[in-house]
Specification:
CATH class of the largest domain: Alpha Beta
CATH superfamily of the largest domain: Medium-chain alcohol dehydrogenases, catalytic domain
Number of helices: 13
Structural class: alpha/beta
CATH architecture of the largest domain: Alpha-Beta Complex
Helix content: 25-40%
Strand content: 25-35%
Oligomer: single chain
Mean pLDDT: 97
């Protein structure tokens, strides 16, 4: 079938992207679902910093590629051997298809699925196929989803079914921002009642992490960013303390506010200086959890002795250490009870034709989560 999709042919074009237009809205060919695959009509797609990183060339991916990885939509057709979804079902995409059979999957860690990671790196679906092309030239899939498009053919293992009465614009956030941010707080950091928690980097994922820490029972919740408007929003969402990362005496101020440092620091900025800051504001015995994705060349150094003498921990969190089929319904239930108001993170709605403008807003920090509606 012929569909419209946002395709990246070259990374590293200069901003503003509304002028250089790295994403071209093109008519492309989408093949029907093969065995274990599903065709979905994309209703809403969120713009994430991981998309921007590919455009900037910070996260190298095989090109040309149809971008987008955070979405919600409606099942149009299922391929052979898909028995638990049907036409009309509402689904949310996740950006790591999990095979269910490799060692991480067998350990209950599907976010680290080895075949899923290999397929994402190669720009294919989980079964190593490509279902997108343009004038018979194959197009690569972005993280198995490629949802900046009218339709997508994806692996069954990239989808989680949701209730049909849920807003699909809000549901889209759960496939990346919410799973990653809330999961980092709950699954990776195991935040519990009464903890002192700091959150560095208030993008869509960082705000989700802040909301997750609050839902888990954090007593002192410190928000850190360079954008004062985002800090004000963090305060309105439940942060007890806000700090601008440009403050020359930031470390001392946070340690004073927390009587020695945070129990847990959640880092979402995706930059080595943010990691270094996070480690410095951990208390003795504290934990730094990072879900940001810095450039592959970025390095992070710490005083090695402090790992032992102060029993500090540094831990990574990918897709929020999530089991999507388990966690996504739980997080939706929290939202419906008002304990996870992720809908407040949506700052803009835009059509597919304005996707490059959306990337400019994300780059400039004037947006948190933008929803592309098809």
């Amino acid at each position: 079938m012929k569909i419209r999709a946002a395709v990246l042919h070259q990374s590293g074009l200069p901003a503003p992207y509304a002028q250089s237009r790295p994403l071209r809205i093109m008519q492309v060919d989408l093949a029907p679902p093969g065995p274990g695959e599903v065709l979905i009509k994309i209703v809403a797609a969120g713009i994430c910093h991981s998309d921007l990183s590919v455009i900037e060339g910070v996260r190298p991916r095989p090109l040309p590629m149809a971008l987008g990885h955070e979405s919600a939509g409606i099942v149009e057709e299922v391929g052979p051997y898909v028995h638990d979804l049907k036409k009309g079902d509402h689904v949310v995409s996740t950006f790591v298809p999990a095979c269910g059979h490799c060692s991480p999957c067998a350990e209950g860690r599907p976010a680290l699925c080895e075949p899923g990671a290999a397929a994402n790196g190669a720009g294919t679906l989980l079964n190593n196929t490509r279902r997108l092309s343009c004038e018979e030239i194959p197009l690569n899939h972005h993280l198995g989803v490629s949802c900046f498009a009218e339709y997508a053919t994806v692996s069954r293992y990239s989808l989680v079914k949701v209730d049909p009465d849920m807003s699909l614009e809000e549901a889209a956030l759960f496939g990346c921002a919410v799973l990653t941010g809330v999961g980092a707080a709950i699954n990776t950091a195991h935040i519990s009642l009464g903890m002192k928690v700091a959150v560095i980097g208030l993008g869509g994922v960082g705000f989700a992490g802040l909301l997750g820490a609050l839902a888990a029972g954090a007593e002192r919740l410190i928000a850190i960013d360079t954008n004062d408007a985002k800090l004000d929003l963090a305060r309105s969402l439940g942060a007890t303390d806000i700090f601008n990362a440009k403050d020359a005496k930031l470390v001392e101020a946070i340690k004073d506010a927390t009587s020695g440092g945070a129990d847990v620091v959640l880092e979402f900025a995706g930059a080595a200086p943010a990691l270094e800051l996070g480690y410095k504001i951990c208390r003795r015995g504290g934990e730094l959890v990072t879900a940001g994705l810095p450039p592959p060349t970025a390095m992070f150094s710490i005083p090695a002795v402090s790992l032992v003498a102060e029993e500090r921990t540094v831990r990574g969190s990918y897709l929020g250490s999530a089991v999507p089929i388990r966690d996504l319904p739980r997080y939706i239930a929290l939202q419906r009870r008002g304990r996870l108001p992720v809908e407040r993170l949506i700052t803009h709605h835009l059509p597919l034709d304005d996707i490059n403008l959306g990337m400019d807003r994300l780059r400039d920090g004037t947006a948190i989560r933008q929803i592309v509606t098809m």
